Amino acid sequence: MNDSDRKQLVAAKQRKPQYDELLRKWAKKKPKSLDLAMQDAHEEVFSDTDCLSCANCCKTTSPIFRDIDIERLSKKLRVKPSDLIAKYLHLDSDGDYVLNSSPCAFLGADNYCSVYDARPTACREYPHTDRKNFYQLSRITSNNLLICPAVSRIIDKIPFNLK
Fold first, then answer.
1. Engineered SS bond to 127: which of 78, 94, 123, 148, CB 3.0-4.6 Å?
2. Contacts of 145 (CB under 8 A, 6+ apart)
3. Coil, helix or strand for 97?
4. Distance in angstroms between the alpha carbons of the first and the last residue of the chain
5. Are 84 and 77 in contact (CB under 8 A)?
6. What is the pTM of this model?
7. Is 17 helix (H, G, I), strand (E, B) or coil?
8. Non-local CB neighbours of 53 within 8 Å, separated by 6+ positions
9. Does an H or E element contain 89, and which?
10. How far is CA 160 from CA 11, 21, 25, 61, 67, in A?
């Protein structure tokens, strides 16, 4: 992670109560223009974001692996789904399959994903800032503020009083 990303995460941590208040407001109000505003901000921020310089998401968290993700990754690795689960995954307290440990076993020293084309949907969609019905993602966005430096940059681009 570069210094700019570190500074962004430190600033996000300091401002987290304000971000959480805004996320709660959006969840309650459900502004019609929020999805479009988030999608535009997401595209703008990620147009000049180098995820490979950070990879904090891959180093610190685990995506949820759905059955379809396990099937796709098993085919990529040419192993049985049960063998993939036995080697890399466990059920968490919510009953979801997640990685046994961090960083991700598929993350290389160069921050490249060795299974990129077969990665789980949660990885493909991370940090979930361009999803429809964004107002429903308050909790996950609050968590991602402390993981992905792009999240606070995206939220900072959204007008406070959306309608």
1. 148
2. 12, 13, 16, 19, 151, 152, 155
3. strand
4. 36
5. yes
6. 0.90
7. helix
8. 1, 2, 5, 111
9. strand 89-91
10. 18, 11, 10, 29, 38
Summarize pLDDT for 33-63 with one digit per residue, the tens: 999 999 999 999 999 999 999 999 999 999 9
- What is the distance between the alpha carbons of residues 36 and 133, in angstroms, rounded to a whole number? 10
- For residue 6, what pLDDT is reported? 94
Q: Alpha-carbon distance 152 to 129, whole Å?
A: 10
Contacts of the segment 106-109: beta carbons below 8 A, 24+ positions apart: 107/55, 107/58, 107/59
Please, which contacts does 28-32 make with residues 24 or more away whose CB atoms are closer than 8 Å? Answer: 29/135, 29/162, 30/135, 31/135, 31/162, 31/163, 32/163
